[in-house]
Amino acid sequence: MKFKKYFLLALMIFSVPAFAQETAYKTIQNIAYYPENTEGATEYRNKQCRLDVYYPEGKKDVPVIVWFHGGGLTGGVKELPQALKEKGYCVVGVGYRLSPKVKAAVCIEDATAAIAWTFKNIAAYQGDPNNIFVSGHSAGGYLALMSVMDKSRLAKYDIDANEVAGLIPFSGHTITHFTIRAERGIPGEQPIIDAFAPLYFVRNDAPPTLLITGDRELEMLGRYEENAYFYRMMKVAGQEKIKQYEMQGYGHNMTHPAFPLLLNFVAEQKR
User: Fold this and answer.
1) Which residue numbers delimit the BD-FAE-like domain (predicted)?
2) Does 157 map to a domain?
3) Which DSSP category does 61 fall into?
4) Could you say which of 12, 74, 229, 266 has the lowest number of CB atoms within 10 Å?
5) 173 is in which domain, residue-wise?
């Protein structure tokens, strides 16, 4: 009985610090990432171009995951995926303008502006600007790739795209996006690789990259194969820090089982 009492007492004593050290998280919503009253400001931009920041209170310099939602560049809303919460990271969920209200290429401009905002402001939300990872699903994966692979985009904000700690697109186009092709009257079955294709910008100095797609037999048209081609051409260009993962048995909506891969990649690559 004495042993049992001492054991329970010890359990209570050592349990208190554990509860006391539990991390509290905070969410700040609808932060504008374009300065107000600047060139190009419209009511639609002011409404759409906002982001949410989820971060752990009481910590500093935690890795950051920027997340772009999917929706074909024509739909969807900003989101903070539940699978990324309470993992010790700062998460930035980005909204952006959508076609047909704007040309789909504007979505890339918005995504780049949101990443630039993160570099310049995330320290105020406990995030580490030296550990910013960029990710997203489908159209969001495409935006992640385009914003970083085309170095000229972040350069407009005086940011070297190679300062991004890692790229993790989920089932993103690596050819020119089908909505951009549709705006030109090009059918979805006709692939194009031009300045709106991540494949156009393959280079050996890009940030570490993890390409994740669904099963090649279950994915959207050619999505696995174009990611495989991107992977191969990056390797040919001399990029060694790139991996590809095919989610066997999962189709295009493979985010849930893919999130652990994203989290593992961030843990491995953080600086």
Assistant:
1) 51-152
2) yes
3) S
4) 12
5) 25-269
Q: Judge whether 13 lies within some domain.
A: no
Distance CA 105, CA 107 (A): 5
Q: Judge contact between 121 and 35, C-beta under 8 A.
A: no
In one-letter notation, the amino acid at residue 243 is K
Question: Residue 56 in 3-state DSSP?
Answer: strand
Q: How many domains does the chain have?
A: 1
- Which residue type does 258 have? A
User: Residue 46's domain is classified under what CATH number?
Assistant: 3.40.50.1820
On whether residue 8 sits in a domain, the answer given is no
Q: What tokens appear for 183 in the block? A: 């705006």
pTM: 0.91
Cβ neighbour number for residue 61 with a 10 Å cutoff: 13
Distance CA 6, CA 8 (A): 5
Amino acid in position 203: R
**Is residue 211 a part of any domain in this protein?**
yes
pLDDT 10s digits, 214-224: 999 999 999 99
